[in-house]
Amino acid sequence: MTASDGTQTAPATEPTKGFDLATLLAERGGERYELHARYLNHQLPRMLHTIGFDKVYERAEGAHFWDDEGNDYLDMLAGFGVMGVGRHHPVVRKALHDVLDAGLADLTRFDCQPLPGLLAEKLLAHTPHLDRVFFGNSGTEAVETALKFARYATGKPRVLYCTRSFHGLTTGSLSVNGESGFKDGFAPLLPDTAVEVGDLDALASELKRGDVAALIVEPIQGHGVHIPPPGYLRAAQELLHRHKALLICDEVQTGIGRTGTFWAYQQEEGVEPDLLTVAKTLSGGYVPVGATLGRDWIFKKVYSSMDRVLVHSASFGSNAQAMAAGLATLSVVEDEQLVENSRRVGGLLRDRLAALTDRYEFLKEVRGRGLMVAIEFGRPKSLGLRSRWTMLQAARKGLFAQMVVVPLLQRHRILTQVSGDHIEVIKLIPPLVFDEADVDRFVTAFTAVMDDAEGGGGLMWDFGKTLVKQAVANR
After folding, report:
1. Which residues are bridge partners to 276 per DSSP?
2. HSE of 350, CA atoms in CB hemisphere, 13 A
């Protein structure tokens, strides 16, 4: 600045303008739980405070993250399966930096960028009987696409789904959810029908009515990690095709190596779904993306003329960041042999846990495929343990599993999840980069927690009493 006498003076101090993320987080990051309680879902921080999960996580890498005190945590949840290649994988990070730096003319809506075609090509190479891909923004959107396409292509209104299934929470996806708790209060939904997974007679009976467009099924159900009986998918496919209906495989969680093959349906010979949905791992843990893969004739029927070119679309679908993340993720999966790692390390984890079923009365079964493993608890035989089990069950089914999850985090810094409401199952879905040292850490911690549970005392059962009181109070 220039003074009246012509001399230069220092500029007046002005407040800093613009946006600075690091400064914002430094100034306001400590308010995270208060902000969420005030402006978002107020029950989430309440729940986290209640069970002692209200940690302050600062950074993450691979299958681990660290809190504000520098403590290391093992991630057995992978963000509900989103972090398939681990947190902040450098290859995916670089791809996103590169695509941002490229300054592409993205989402013009009236051109054809190369990245969507390249990602579709890579996905379809793993699914040679399918021909085309629609890109949306999430798993539930991929399912919505499959439902719409199946109805339009067949000209039939009804979709069958399996009991205990989970396919998303938007209205169409919710209509084919097998858990009533998610549906309560949101009726009316679409007129779809549930059949028991594995029950071919029930499927045949519904198909005879002549109005079924498709059956949507998870090759392994996420809720409880239930695997259909051997041969079910192949037999269901044959029944569906005989009645000119379609098979939709929902691989939103099971796809891209989670179960030890690229797609979970590939573990049963002869299965070739007409439509397939995928999301979660495809994102690389960064940019939401969902994909619906399908047969050529289905897509050509939906997009039957230029007048129908936008009959089904998504504003952010096929955006460059999501496509780059997907391409980088598939490259990592291939280069680091994560499908094979899932099969090998997942088998080791499952075998070591299954070996404990004879040791602990509470441990009923260990099941799963690849790095999708369920630990199910059940009623013990001895009188003392049985009375404690009965106390928890009388208050609310699922409390014992929750009673195991909490000390795994609080004492052993391992994040797990109960695999659904009112079931005694813990689901393990760690990142596909999970290794043998991580298996050792989890099994050691789980053994210590089960020793405490069957010892009948200590902080674990004190917490169990707290859960019982809360469950009774919430009735």
Report:
1. 249, 293
2. 21
Q: With bands split at pLDDT 50, 70 and 90, how would you rate the model's confidence at 397?
A: confident
**SS3 of 57, please?**
strand
Phi-psi region of 155 (alpha: psi -120 to 50; beta: other; left: phi over 0): left
First to last CA, the chain: 70
Strand 193-195 vs strand 372-377: parallel, antiparallel, or unpaired? unpaired
Give the CA diameter of the chain: 98
Across the strands, what pairs with 427?
374, 417
Note the pLDDT tens digit of each residue in 435-464: 999 999 999 999 999 999 988 666 566 666
Sheet holding 372-377, edge to edge: 363-369, 372-377, 425-428, 417-418
DSSP secondary structure, 370-429, as one string: TTEEEEEE---SSHHHHHHHHHHHHH-TTHHHHHHHHHHHHTT-EE-EE-STT--EEEE-
Model-wide pTM > 0.90: yes
Q: pLDDT of 9-45, one tens digit each?
A: 555 555 557 999 999 999 999 999 999 999 999 999 9
Q: Per mean pLDDT, which range of 222-226, 299-303, 428-432, 457-461 is the poorest? A: 457-461
- Amino acid identity, residue 315? S
For residue 25, give the amino acid letter: L
pLDDT of residue 7: 56
Q: What is the token pair recorded at 272?
A: 């070739």
Q: Which residues of 253-291 are buried (b: 16+ CB within 10 A; e: fewer)?
A: bbbbbbbbbbbbbbbbeebbbbbbbbbbbbbbbbbbbbb
CA distances from 155 to 23, 60, 150, 301, 437 (A): 55, 48, 8, 11, 53
Q: Are 350 and 373 contacting, i.e. CB atoms less than 8 angstroms apart?
A: yes
The single-letter code of the amino acid at 239 is L
